[in-house]
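Note to self: keep these together.
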Amino acid sequence: MKKLCPICGKLHSLGETCKPYTRIADRITEQRKFRNSTAWKKKREEIKERDKYLCVYCLQVDRVITRDSLEVHHIVKISASEEGKLQDENLVTLCRYHHEMAEKNMISKEELYGLVNKVERGGRIPPEGKDYKKH
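Structure:
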């Protein structure tokens, strides 16, 4: 007996796994393995420390200080750039809201790179002389 595959649209024997599905599952497993690695956990903390445990987007764009629900975002996705997984210039601290926006490409990669460059060039966090609201 055969069934229609929801992944590729072809007929497969019952119990047979579709090859595209297997590749997707393998990729997810690799990403999960990376996210649980000591190297990633250490790098994630380094980036949060570099960004003073603040959402860089909230600070630089919205002019508010956000310290809650912080996540480290890969500007170029892990699946697209193996070498960028642990590079400082590819990583930025964002609050959950802005992380989701970045994942949906509602915040451009160029804008995120610009924010990281400001921080890496020694830009003070928060910049002096600015009025900020705590969020």
